[in-house]
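Data card: per-record layout.
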Amino acid sequence: MALVTISGYPCSGKSTRANQLAAYFEKRLGEAGYDGPRLRVALVDDEGSHVERAVYDGGSKATSSWSHPILEPVVPFAGTYT
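The structure for this 82-residue chain is written out next.
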């Protein structure tokens, strides 16, 4: 599993760039010449994953690296080797 994260100031183009990257990866993975592993692209954003703003402000305590609320939407896509 590859994980790409994007951060930046509000209204700096993070969502636009994330959508561009997702479209690019999907295109490349679907090309006839691609002979790598079968992968899928998942775009996880704050609104779709219902991440509370307090997560970014240190308002949430995590008990392990995968139990932090900001990572919960990613866990279903994580493979066995992550």
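Known properties of this structure: The chain has a mean pLDDT of 77. The first helix runs from residue 14 to 30.

See the next section for split statistics.
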